[in-house]
Amino acid sequence: MNRLILAILLGAAPISVSAQDFAITNATVGTGDGSAPIEHATVVVRAGKIVSVGRDTAAPGGTQVIDGTGKWVTPGLFSAVTDLGLWDVEAVDDSNDTSAEKSPFNAALDVATALNPSSEHIAVSREGGVTRASVAPMNGASIFAGQGAVIDLGQDAAIVMKPRAFQYVELGESGARLSGGSRVAAHTALRNALREAREVAALPVGAQRQGDVLLTRADAAALAKVIDGTQTLYVGVERASDIRGVLALKAEFPRLDLVLVGATEGWLVAPEIAAAGVPVVTMPMRDLPATFETLAATMSNVGRMKKAGVKVAIGMFMGMDQPRNAPQQAGNLVALTKIPGASGLTWGEALAAITSIPAEISGFGGKAGVLAPGAAGDVVLWDGDPLELSSAPVSVWIDGVKQPVDSHQARLRERYKDLDETYLPKAYDW
Amino acid sequence: MRETPWKRRLLCGLVMSAALVMTTQAADAKKKDKDAKSGPAPYSSTYKPYPGRPTALVGATVYDGRGGRIDNGTVLFENGKVVAVGAADLAIPAGYDRVDGSGKFVTPGVIDIHSHLGVYPSPSVDALSDGNEMTSPTTPDVWAEHSVWPQDPGFTRALINGGVTTLQILPGSGNLIGGRAVTLKNVPSRTVQGMKYPGAPYSLKMACGENPKRVYGARNQKPMTRMGNFSVDRQAWIDAKKYMDGDHADRDLGKDTLEGVLKGEILVQNHCYRADEMAQVLDMAKEMGYKVTAFHHAVEAYKIGDLLKANDVCAAIWADWYGFKMEAYDGIPENAALLAKQGACVVIHSDDENGIQRLNQAAARAQAAGRRIGVDVPDGQVVGWFTYNAAKAMGIGEKTGSLEAGKMADVVLWNGNPLSVYSRPEKVWSDGALLYDADDPKRKPVSDFELGQPGEGDVK
């Protein structure tokens, strides 16, 4: 009871807070759509949505006006293919719901059943400007990891925007190990599963399945949505030849809606990826031949794929690679434009790679990751160039709701700003 | 060329070696073992600086690594050594190449105090996984240099993207006492000896906390707990002291190493996350009579900045790694800044083949986190977090880590402020030899492993 009263007094009650109408004026605005930043611009948010953006936009009368002089504004960052909300401490197994090695199910697994809005990693990411994410499961004992969800990071209980948004399958070296020891086995497992799913989907109600069944009914039902293209299939793959193998799946399963995840050697087959119209989510700064399927790794991968016409998002923030570090990855791609022979991105393209493009790949094009009329009121006010190392969010709004700064990290920071224990131990400093 | 201290040491070693041959001819086996200890250091460095040209870097902003900043500065180096660092009016001797650094920045070569390049190289396959002798909780007898694969492509990436000229390779942290670390010059070489930093002291890698207790506890073996960790450590030190006081008739490689620590010849680099545990380790060091040089991965160092300062121990840390294991749950991005505020020694380290390419960026992030809570650490001091402070904590602060006359000419010319995400090394010199030049495709090393394979020599 006392705690509840305290929570209300502190304004931290876990009840839904209504969106503010506000305008940020005279800021440098990166809209996230790939264009260059606009100086002295205004962003207007009303009823949780972006209303207008631009230099000629005026703040409507009666709206709260925030002076953005000297500051930058961007859409909230969209973190594609992350494990946010699935673990508290990665190495503490009990707190980790990213994979299920001993489950009899795989494709049917649904991360929406585990996502925790109170995870510290969600709070820390939110403070870093991340407002939306696609959360993917990791593989257990199968090449199929299960179904991922799209979430928002707003501080309320309603975390899931779209459950079962995609299925994740792992091919390449780790897919080969998971399916019995070779890429041959992985492709056989994948095609067999999709065929079984197609057969199950085509059965009349109540009819028995044929023999030679490897998938549980639940897994087959999950994959039926992949076959008919109503659920996107994310494919973890790195090597150029493996990417070609994925693109070739469309010959047998023409309605597959594919997204490549990883694609470290994507630049070697960029025209083919572009021609297939398949987008890519990748982690761009990996430039080492960490495995034999990434021998051609280079930081120029993103720039070269983009140049060839591939839609590329920066993502795959998992484990120690925190989603709040997305701007650093993006900024590094801008840095490449100054290196002879390298391929990078313009500032606008780099911002798009961590905002609008991952939103589009996740099925939320025009609705998130962009400051455009009608899009969600996800706004980040930064104390400087958002891609620069010295910058950080000053304020973060999600759906027009200003978000609190109250993570475990923030509280530790406040407690240990000094080490003064003259009167009482640090345990009383809260 | 002036005779360098390491050359003197090498000559001294050769003389002693000759003496050793004569005495051992008539000696018995045990005596031979005993005397072998006083001979030249085995596996000694064969590193030789590559030729460079007398060079004057002019017009750039210079961070000297010791906190100093000179706008429109001049850096002169010749014969592998820094000759002078000064303002625009510093006279440039005849015969020097001028490199225009207008709009650019100069720092000492970047130094990583915590790397596993070579012992956990790329490709990271089992056949090359040589970083952790997890067969016993204490393995002071193993030396990381015996595992290093000089062809690891990670070395070249660290050079060209991170400006890393010196790095310490540590054995992994599964053991309480993991073995000897080795300090390397980041130069391509056919042998590890050809990379060994001349005259660098050895370090001993130790680990406290979760790793050793997890590895051995899972095998139902001591240590299974943190108290087990301390018990095994303390007994090892007690046994080492007994050995040290003995006649060394039976040579023990592990105890040789521990003896080196007790004598102050070998530094201690201690993997330790939690504040309370670091305090316990400091007490153990007092009890046993050794010194901890640096705590690595010290994510909770900010809770005991006063204690670390009082004990003259560096904290080698990441900018903001967080929450991946229980002992990292209280990590905060303000760690480095709060330590600096206490006057404690900060080193930014990588422990990562990707992170080592961006130590400057990690330091900038840590600086920015501090600035937001009102702890404003100047840029020059922040550059010291990944140059001089690292060198100091590796025992080579007298030779490298800063741009001062007489020091090794390990120098990076950055194409912008190294604390900006938009900047990269443009040229990197090691002992005055130009080993990377962004404008010269041939002035970029490609490891044997990469030859003829996809992506060979590509811009990385």
Automatic annotation (TrEMBL), chain A:
Keyword Hydrolase: yes
SUPFAM superfamilies associated with the record: Composite domain of metallo-dependent hydrolases, Metallo-dependent hydrolases
Domain spans labelled Amidohydrolase: 277-400
Swiss-Prot/TrEMBL keywords: Hydrolase, Signal
Top-level taxon in the UniProt lineage: Bacteria
Signal peptide location: 1-19
Molecular-function GO terms, alphabetical: hydrolase activity, acting on carbon-nitrogen (but not peptide) bonds
Cited Gene3D superfamilies: Metal-dependent hydrolases, Urease, subunit C, domain 1
The keyword Transferase belongs to this UniProt entry's keyword annotation: no
Protein's name according to its UniProt entry: Amidohydrolase
TrEMBL record, chain B:
Keywords from the named record: Hydrolase, Signal
Region (Disordered): 29-50, 437-460
GO molecular function: hydrolase activity, acting on carbon-nitrogen (but not peptide) bonds
Region forming the signal peptide: 1-26
SUPFAM superfamilies (UniProt xref): Composite domain of metallo-dependent hydrolases, Metallo-dependent hydrolases
Amidohydrolase-related domain boundaries: 341-432
Key word Transferase present: no
UniProt keyword Nucleus, yes or no: no
Pfam family, one: Amidohydro_1
Protein origin, superkingdom: Bacteria
Protein name: Amidohydrolase
Species for this entry: Novosphingobium resinovorum
